[in-house]
Fold:
Amino acid sequence: MKQDPDTGRASSLATGLRLWPLKRYSEMHRRSLEDPEDFWSGEARKLDWYKTWDRVLDWHMPYARWFVGGRLNACYQCVDRHAKMWRRSKVAIYWEGERGETRVLSYSTLFREVNRFASALRQLGVTKGDRIALYLPMIPELPIAMLACARIGAVHTVIFSGFSAQAICDRVADTQAKIIVTADGGYRRGKIIPLKEITDEAAVRCPSVQNIIVARRTGEPVPMKEDRDIWLPSLLEGAGKFIDCEAVESTHPLYVLYTSGTTGKPKGVVHSTGGYLVFNHSAYQWVFDIREESVYWCTADVGWVTGHSSIVYAPLSHAAAIVLYEGAPDYPTVDRWWDIIAKYGVRIFYTSPTAVRMFVRHGEEGPLKHDLSSLELLGSVGEPINPEAWQWYYKYIGGERCPIVDTWWQTETGGIMISPTPGIEPVPLKPGSATFPLPGVDAAVVDASGQETRPGETGYLIIRRPWPGMLLDIYGDPQRYKETYWTRFPGSYYTGDFAMKDEDGYLWLLGRADEVLKVAGHRIGTAELEDAAVAHPAVSEAAVVGKADEVKGEGIVLFVTLKEDVKPSATLRKELVRHMRQAIGPVATPDEVYFVDSLPKTRSGKIMRRVLKALAVGQSVGDLTTLENEASVDEVRRAYEGLKKRVSAAEGD
Ligand code: WTA
Structure:
């Protein structure tokens, strides 16, 4: 880790210290924007290409294509190039099961496993461009399956193992995946999640699925359908030992990952191979100073984008050793994570503010019991981190010596966009600010008309030019791609986030500006939740708003109107909560459910969310009304007062 010449520390808090000029970072950032093609081709040369690109960038708004004409393979970058040299015997994956089992995979073991898996897929008829769905717990087979797909040019779509059958169905139907890879179960807080049964429930509604491959985890018996279902171990027994990497075009899709937007249907974000890998490889050096000797642990689930970039592709491309932990953070005891850090000598630790807040609640005894001196750098991702949680993280986990990189990014951006870059030079930190855009990232905060805001003013975060990790498209829906990201501020990418730039140029990310919630760091759309709620036979209409939650960042508040003959009751409330969990998964659990006889609407029938929000958070509608462009202040106030009465009446049940 680089040291600040004055303080001798790896990084320092800006508060109370002078802000030293960031010479190297500023110079790099300036150069990257002055001549992006030269800058990015320099970065791309750090990877191994079968064929170098003809053009660095083809930019035809809204489509950017990077390293056009180049050919490479993601599995080669992450596995082969390390397994070919002395690194073959170094650790690639430290796996820790929830029940305390461990598996350690060297790069040569990873190479062997990936090759066998890839050969098996090929034997089942998988070829370049085919989509493969992965619905697996956090076991080594998950990254192995991803890399195996990449090896033969197949496109993986990972489905978070906390999602329900419906979510699998939607994703498999959209991608027309012909294989689902799952397991006989996964462990969560000591319980078995019946992944195979859930997959079966989905598969009956997914005609594209020809085979289900089942990995062994729990050893419990599961139903197997002849001719369709295959045990992974027996499949691998008959598979070849080696299969060549497919030299895919730089623009070939590496994966599709579904994420929530403002409509009920999640969008399939498509990422490229070349641009995505170049961007992530560089970003992880700048942000985490990651090296082959790093023991790196990102606690996210591989089912989210953080898991794709931060667990699999970026750290493995640097030949780091990753920690993969299967279970819950506080199981069986609240110091499980600190135990894992000490056990493996983790140097870089990357987690979410929700997790930090949860540990703040548990108190500092947990971390104090363990030797966390191996840690050098801490990271935060997924939601804004409040200064109190930041300070606790800094003090009790980082021992006041590790800088915290607060990294802002999105499924769509593919990799980190705004973050301190201690891998370039130490950055004075301000708790709660993600600091500055990475080299190559042209971020700006603008008002509704697209003008840059003044320091201290809140606005919308936009990115004014393409970057290599940018999504290629939304799978099968180019119109939605264009409308969601490129029409609000023509020529710029609209992030959907509020942000503020302070007097020192530091960026503060202030949460979503659209109807997307961040519940415990998990991204979920209100429309998706509302669709799930109205699918319940008792529900007529539904509206969801977020409510600040001390630990989860945001909680889900559900308002419903019921069908004519249905009466509100405590039993029905419980039933609705259960229904939501079943329809989407535990992430969709409402914290509060209100029965109302009608939802407040504008004259044109739009639900007045601000009214619901004000009610949910127990504030008066006040100034929020100015944001409701279709209703008069009076109308909003009346709707609010009326609704308040009705809610309290219904609560009397
Ligand atoms: C939010 C997660 C504040 C933001 C990688 C963004 C953050 C959404 C931060 C994307 C951060 C992510 N500070 N907010 N450091 N990182 N966000 O697609 O609202 O699951 O738009 O990607 O998370 O969520 P997604």
